[in-house]
Amino acid sequence: MKLLNDTQMQEFIVNGFVIVKARLSPVFHESVRAQADEIFSTTGNPGNDILPAIPQLADLFSHPSVTGALTSILGPGYAMHPHRHCHLTPPRKTAQRHHQDSYEDDQNVRHHRTRWAMAFYYPQDVTLDMGPTSVLPASQYYTSRDQAEKQEEVLLCGEAGTVTIVHYDLWHRATTNRSERNRFMMKFLFCRMEEPTAPTWDCTSLTWSESAAGEDLPHLWRSLWNWHAGNELSGDRQDAASRTSPLPSARGNGSNGEGATLSEAGRLEQSYRLSRQGEQGSAELAQRLAKEAVELLDHNQAARHTNPSQLRSNFGLSAQGAAAVPLLLSSLESANWPLRAAAADVLGDIGLQASHAVPRLLDRLDDESEWVRRNATEALGNIASPEAVPRLARLLTQDSCHFVRHNAALSLAKIGPCAGAASSSLQIAQDDSNLYVRENARLALARMRTD
Predict the structure, then answer these.
(1) What's the number of domains the chain is made of?
(2) Which of 177, 192, 322, 396 has the fewest beta carbons closer than 10 A?
(3) For residue 239, with 0-12 CB atoms within 10 Å meaning exposed, 13-18 middle and 19 or more buried, which class applies?
(4) Quick check: 70 and 119 in contact, CB under 8 A?
(5) pLDDT for 181-195, tens place per residue?
(6) Same structural domain for residues 104 and 161?
(7) The pLDDT of residue 160 is above 60
C-alpha cells in the first residue's frame, strides 16, 4: 500500500480531502466509462448495484494508492459500505447546491472523528467545463451552510483515475456541465471498523505542524491529529496555564466582534478549549450538554436525517476522553431521554477510553427511546465490547426500529471474530426488510470468519 505521509494526513484533517491517482491503464478507465454510459442509456442508474454492474471497479478499490489512503484515514480492516452510486452529470445539467450527504437509512450524529469517508472516482478526464465535483475545504466540521460557504470552493478536475478521498461530512456539490460530454463520478462509502491505537499512515513525527494549518480551528485539528495517532491525550494534557486560565465564555470575541454571539467555528473552538480545562471544563461542558439536549431538540427533530443528539458541547466532551466518562454516566441515568441519548452518543465517540461504561450502556439497550437505544448500540460497537454481543444479537432480530437493527449489525461487525455467539441472529437478519440491516449482517458474518 502507498500510505499517506504526515503532511498529507494533516492536510486531510484540516481540509477534509486528499487526492490520489489510481494509475491503472487508460483502457481500464475507458472500459468503466463505456460500461457506465451503456448502463445509464439502457437500464438507468443501478444505484447501490453499481459494483456488480461493473465488477472491475473492485480492482480500482484494491489499488495500492487507494487502499493506502483509506487505511491511513480509516485504519486497517476498514469496510466498504453497501451504499455506492454512480453520478451522471449530462451536458447542460445545472449545478447543485452545496450539501452534506445524509447517512444512508441511519440518522447518525455528524462527528469530527473520522469513522466514515467517501471516495470520488473519475473514469474519464474531467476539465472545468465538464461540471467537476466541487468541495468546500475545511467545511466538514460545520453543520451550518452559512459557515461552510465561507470556505473557498475547490473544483476537482483531473485525469481518468483521479480518486478523491473525503471526510463523509465535507460540503460538496456537482457543478454545471457546460460541455457536450457526459461526466461520470463513482461515489463509494467506507466505514472504520477499528478504533485507532497507533498511527496508521506513514508517520515519521507525532508533532502537529502548526504551519500546516490556518488559524480557524487549531484546538480541534490538534485534537483530531492526536486521536488518529491513538494518543489523543498527549497533545491535550492540561498544563498549569490551561488549568488556571478562565473558562471560555459562551459570548465573546467571535467572528462578529466583542460581545457578539460566537460563530459556529468559534463555538467549536470554545468546546475544544474547554476540553483542556480539566474538571472545571468537564463540569461546564456537561452543563452545556444538558441544556443543549433540551434547547436544540425541536430544531434537530424538525430537520431531515438529523439525530436529536447533534449538539455542540459533545465535541469537547469527546476530546476529554476518559475524564468526561463519570459525568456522562450520570447523564445516562437522566429522566430526560434527549440527555440520555446525547450521553450515549458521546460515550460512543470517546470509544475505547469509555470501556468501563459498557454495563451502563447495556442497560440503555432496553430504553423506551429509540434514539437512546440507537446511540447506545453504536457506542458498544465503537468500544468493541464482546460483553455486548448477546444483547446486540437480540436487538438485531427483535427491535422494531430499523436504525437500531442497522447499528446492531454494524456493531457486531466491528466486534468481529469475538461476535461468534451472534451468528444465528446474523443469519436471520439476512432476511430483514431493510437493505442495510441485511448488508451489515453479511459484513459481520464475513468479519467473524476473518481474524
Answers:
(1) 3
(2) 322
(3) exposed
(4) yes
(5) 999 999 999 999 999
(6) yes
(7) yes
Closest residue by Cα to residue 378 from 40, 111, 147, 71: 111
Q: pLDDT band for position 231 (50/70/90)?
A: confident
In order of 152, 164, 235, 308, the CA distances from 7 in angstroms are 21, 16, 18, 36
163 phi/psi in degrees, rounded to 5: -125, 125
Do 33 and 146 fall into the same domain? yes
Residue 441 lies in a domain: yes
User: Which CATH number goes with the domain that contains 156?
Assistant: 2.60.120.620
12 with 139, same domain?
A: yes
- Coil, helix or strand at residue 91: coil
Give the residue-averaged pLDDT of 31-40.
97
The residue that leads in pLDDT, 169 or 105, is 169
Mean pLDDT on 162-170: 98
Q: Which three cell numbers stand for residue 99?
A: 450539501
User: Residue 105: its pLDDT value, please?
Assistant: 85
CB 421 within 8 A of CB 387: no
What is the distance between the alpha carbons of residues 388 and 361, in angstroms, rounded to a whole number? 9
Provide the pLDDT for residue 243. 44
Q: Are residues 83 and 180 in the same domain?
A: yes
Of 191, 218, 240, which marks where a domain is finished? 191
Give the pLDDT band of residue 79 (cuts 50, 70, 90): very high
- The beta strand positions in 122-243, using DSSP E, are 133-135, 154-155, 162-167, 172-174, 183-191
Same domain, 349 and 394: no
Cβ-based neighbour number of residue 363 at 10 Å: 13
Q: Is residue 214 part of a domain?
A: no
Exposure string for 380-405, b = 16+ CB within 10 A, e = fewer: bbbbbbeebbebbbebbbebeebbbb
User: Where in the sequence is the domain holding 408, given as residue range(s)?
Assistant: 384-451
Q: What is the pLDDT of residue 216?
A: 82
pLDDT at residue 425 above 80?
Answer: yes
Is residue 322 one of the residues assigned to a domain?
Answer: yes
Other Cβ atoms closer than 10 A to 78: 20
Co-location of 31 and 94 in the same domain: yes
- Contact between 364 and 373 under an 8 Å Cβ cutoff? The reply is yes
Residue 10 lies in a domain: yes
Q: Residue 239 above 50 pLDDT? A: no
How much is the pLDDT for 24?
Answer: 95
CATH number at residue 403: 1.25.10.10
Q: What is the DSSP letter of 97?
A: P
Q: Distance between the two ends of the chain, CA-based, in angstroms?
A: 20
Model confidence at 413: pLDDT above 70: yes
